[in-house]
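dumping this here before i forget
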Amino acid sequence: MDWKFLQGLLSGVNKYSTAFGRIWLSVVFVFRVLVFVVAAERVWSDDQGHFDCNTRQPGCTNICYDYFFPISHIRLWALQLIFVTCPSLMVVLHVAYREERERKYRAKHGEDTRLYDNPGQKHGGLWWTYLSSLFIKTTFEITFLYLLHYIYDSFKLPRKVQCDVKPCPNLVDCYISRPTEKTVFTYFMVGASVLCVVLNICEIFYLIAFRVVTLKHRGSVQTPSRRVHPNLHCKSSLAS
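structure:
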């Protein structure tokens, strides 16, 4: 699988991210994408070929493998990486929409006029788009973690599984290739995913807190100016 498009997407959204967002991008690219491409794919490359069962019954080994591994870890992680990074495209597209509006506005009203102070600044609709992308990414992360645990009943891969699914003649023992190495990679990928969830939650709280503080600051600046006029009105009425 070619991950160059994902690298380009992450590099593009990095310009509009907060400090938490940049850390999240680093974790995704270094600890998930690179580990996935360089090591994890090779560990699971011989998964089905080295899944051995102590029976010669035709079709039994394939049926047992499909029963215990309905979807490979590596393919589930590939889907997870795609789903958790695509919401960042919402921010890039929103900024591109703003830049296009800015270009048309300048073409109509002159190069000295500006519609946005900074098209990439997170205020107005872009703030909501950025916050929504964080909620969507967090939801996808938690959903895939739940699916991984639900499908395999644990994050630890057993050395031996027992299968009695037809056409197996009886209860047969099947052995997974390199279970310890796969368990280590599974825990590593799960830990990286949990770290990304924590970073997303921290960024959500940061954005909301920063927004509340900004609104309170604007309110405190506007409130004194509103209180001056009644006092002046009273003084003028007393003077008259």
